[in-house]
Amino acid sequence: MLQGLDRYNRWIVGHLRPFAGRRLLEVGAGTGNLTRFFLRCEEILAVDLDEGFLKELERRIGPTPRVKTAVVDISSPDDLIGDRLFDTILCVNVLEHIQDDEATLKRFRNHLAPGGRLLLLVPAHASLYGGVDSSAGHVRRYERRMLAGKLVAAGFLVERLRYFNMLGAIGWWVNVRLLRRKYLPLGQSRLLNILVPLLRLEDRINPPFGLSLIAVAVRR
């Protein structure tokens, strides 16, 4: 969904980048749609399950010693990162794909230095779960209280938790509940990207609902 959506990606990054530190672990980096916005970090380890995606990320970012990539299954106890510690973990639209998300959140905590932050975006509202989620491999969508509880249980202090993209939530409901779609029309994603300047007006308030939940959580 994030491929080619530069305005939308910048909107997401605007909520997360102010909390990023110097050493960043990006989980589910894909082809680098978000990675390129964090190049001010001194060290980035971008991991993904797909080696082809990571090769494309390397091509897009260009040669730089600050960015390294690795094929890693973060949901596995043997995730190949070892005992390395980071001060930031970036995880956008990934956790919903993992069956045992609670164990993964604990693994995130173990890869963070004390006081390090997890920057997280996940799909919101279980009531919006439908064919599009299933086709995308989503195990679940998250309620606000549910996500907060999982973060606390994993050893985090929730610093920020808010809904994101109210209009997108309405569009998602129309697609999955009224139209029973399993895939979103490509034109809708493009329209969403075009409308970002209007959508960003919600940043002035605390949205009561949204397509996603954004969390900033600190390792206790």
Overview of the structural elements:
With 220 residues, the protein is α/β, with parallel strands linked by helices. It has a single domain, classed as Vaccinia Virus protein VP39 (Rossmann fold, 3-Layer(aba) Sandwich), CATH 3.40.50. The protein is 34% helix and 24% strand. The protein contains 8 helices and 7 strands. Strands 3-2-1-4-5-7-6 form a 7-stranded mixed sheet, with helices on both faces. β4, α3 and β5 (112-123) form a beta-alpha-beta unit. It is globular, with a radius of gyration of 17 Å. The protein starts with 5 loop residues before the first helix and ends with a strand.
SSE topology sketch:
Blueprint: H1 6-16, E1 23-27, E2 43-48, H2 51-61, E3 67-71, E4 86-92, H3 101-110, E5 112-123, H4 131-136, H5 144-153, E6 156-164, H6 166-178, H7 186-194, H8 196-199, E7 212-219
Parallel strand pairs: 1-2, 1-4, 2-3, 4-5
Antiparallel strand pairs: 5-7, 6-7
